[in-house]
Amino acid sequence: MRDYFANSWKTYAGFGIAAIMLFAVAPAVLSDFRLSLLGKFLCFGIVAVGIGLAWGRGGMLTLGQGVFFGLGAYIMAMHLKIADAELRGDDVPDFMQIAGIRELPAYWQPFASPVVTILGIVLIPTFVAVLLGLGVFKRKVKGAYFAILSQALAAAFAILLVGQQTIGGSNGLNRFRSFFGLALNDPVNRRLLFFIAAATLLVVVAITRQLMYSRYGELLVAVRDQEERVRFLGYDPANVKLVAYAVAALFASIAGALFVPIVGIISPADVGIVPSIAFLIGVAIGGRTTLLGPVLGAIAVAWAQTSLSENFPSGWVYAQGILFIVVVGFFPAGLAGLGALLRRRRRPPADPDSTRTTDVAVATTSTGVSS
């Protein structure tokens, strides 16, 4: 009971410190541009939380999170473009007018409603993940085969988007002017977007922690380590994996929906293979089996990419590859596992005299028993 209250106190303290840093310190010390940049990184952190649950706890190497990130992002972008067209008094968004499209496509029309848009961001990617999960996990596809399949889906999704001129083609959707009635060129509203992203990240982390330390979290780890034993005990591992996969897809979709108004653009380049692998690299570097490791790793990698790209445009790819190799090869638990490694190395070695005395005592006891 004492350990439970101690862990709860540490959890509340951690959330309190994170809230102070995000809602008080960051707005006070960062410029509007850097604050928006941090909001973009927080979106990547939301994706990383879901990957940490599915990969770190469930053992599912999800190389296709760009699909769900893109679904949420494009649904939000379609709503914003329709809203902007209505503000101008036009029937279709500006890029459709340039392309000669005079009527809004049928699949765009439901997203004119803010309620339908929010429901679509939550339900559509989750439904897609459930369908994919049922087809994959029920057939016992796992390991490298699952990773290759999820990566192929991300590539196919990006190629599909490039060929669709009604959603911007290779250029994607950009130049958003409003967000649910708020002008995006207003610095106050830009800060509000950052606060929404920060609050969403905290909520997502809280939900994931509850899942990890619940009975379901223990079952998910058991499926990762001994799937056949879990099946022998009467559980269906496919259903256990399906929940984690769907939750990770939902988090990625929400992150994509927030990414659009913060960054101001979404294109096939943001949802293909390269972004999906970048999400995974951040999780691996931070520590995929921990709660905060994926978040911190994703934010750190995104920050390093931005910083190095500003000074060394061609050097980031090599630095990212070297960092990933070093972490996977020498620190499989990620940077979050360095603390435990240092504690083990600082632990004093066992005294050989005490070990010898213990062995003699054990031998004497066993002799006395046998005699």
UniProtKB/TrEMBL annotation:
Tell me, in one coarse class, where this protein mainly resides: membrane
User: Where do the record's region annotations for Disordered lie?
Assistant: 347-371
Q: Where is the composition biased (Polar residues)?
A: 357-371
Keywords assigned by UniProt, alphabetized:
Cell membrane, Membrane, Transmembrane, Transmembrane helix
Keyword Metal-binding in record = no
Per the record, the coiled-coil ranges are none
Q: Which InterPro entries is this protein grouped with?
A: ABC_transp_permease (IPR001851), ABC_transptr_urea_perm_UrtC (IPR017778), LivM-like (IPR043428)
Transmembrane stretches, by residue range?
A: 12-30, 37-55, 61-80, 111-137, 192-212, 242-266, 278-304, 316-342
| Localization of this protein | Cell membrane
Topologically, how does it sit relative to the membrane? Multi-pass membrane protein
- Name the PANTHER family for this protein: HIGH-AFFINITY BRANCHED-CHAIN AMINO ACID TRANSPORT SYSTEM PERMEASE (PTHR30482), SLR1201 PROTEIN (PTHR30482:SF4)
**Family matches, as NCBIfam families:** urea_trans_UrtC (TIGR03408)
Q: What is this protein called?
A: Urea ABC transporter permease subunit UrtC
